[in-house]
Amino acid sequence: xxxxxxxxxxxHYLPSRVVTNHDLAALFETSDEWIVQRSGIKERxxxxxxxxxxxxxxxxxxxxxxxxxxxxxxxxxxxxxxTLSPDVNFPGSGCxxxxxxxxxxxxxxxxxxxxSGFIYSLSVADAWVRAGVYRxxxxxxxxxxxxxLEFTDRGRDVAVLFGDGAGAVLVGEAHGDAGVRAIExxxxxxxxxxxxxxxxxxxxxxxxxxxxxxxxxxxxxxxGKQVFRWATEKMPEVALSVLGRSGMTIAEVDLFxxxxxxxxxxxxxxxxxxxxxxxxxHNIQRYGNTTAxxxxxxxxxxxREGKIQPGSRVLMAAFGAGFTWAGAVAVF
Length: 332
Ligand code: UT7
Fold this sequence. Notes:
By secondary structure, the protein is of the alpha/beta class. Helices cover 33% and strands 23% of the residues.
């Protein structure tokens, strides 16, 4: 029988500092009412102090995932680190995480696919395990957004949406009925400028000028309406397509774990899929958009709440910067 890869364990970590919409309203012109109505977000977590990077948030999440999988850290033979907010420009956060976990020599690959980064990573881990390249692949999605947002009226449309956090899974050889059943990945650079952080940029000399700094081109900028339109079209499309590849129907899905960018997007996607609200994971109210971390955090919390059990059929879908979008179906 062909070898299959499965998600064997999961973990998550959120910094302790809770930042409410009211806290943000003290910094710039916004309100709890606007943020909740437009996005569903009530609060998010920010790192407690300067000096904490994505790889630091990843450490407890990774340990939790390895433990739930019944493995030890020394069993991890490859790391995939999905992030758009690496600790430093280079080297990748995967190398930093490997060092912090005490895994010298273990290969570490950073995946730069933003909100779709976790599903892209799952695709790589799935292929590695099935091909027998690596046995236990640690995937982490981790972000520190709070140090890179513009907390002013100019940046308020983006600043209210994002939070810090980390999620992780351990992928290894499947047993019984468990396993990743289908994955589908997409990208279209036509939307690159609709959601991006432009500078510092290696295509400019110098990479960052005082003028660019003044204009705030080192902050994330988003054409919210355009991203919203694409997300509500592409997420249901990729979810239904990957489901078709897996040979399952929506009625057979026990849990839908969508990327958490906006509660309204996920409600529209769920309605288009025709999936009942009680089978859809929402945690954006508490954490905001943690980008590459949203899906593994959703899996880890759901597993611990008993919403994921042995045999559970889980559908995932994501849309984000790039544009990139992706879907996956896995049996736990
Ligand atoms: O994971 C990455 C993918 N990202 C996404 O999927 C995000 C997709 N986009 C969205 O979720 C929505 O477009 C937003 C939540 C970002 C914005 O919602 P919207 O309904 O599209 O609002 P808008 O951009 O049309 O803004 C409406 C108004 C504007 O004022 P005027 O021009 O109508 O007077 C904005 O200036 O709201 C204003 N506004 C704010 N007001 C209070 C923008 N940001 C804020 C704010 N607080 N934080």
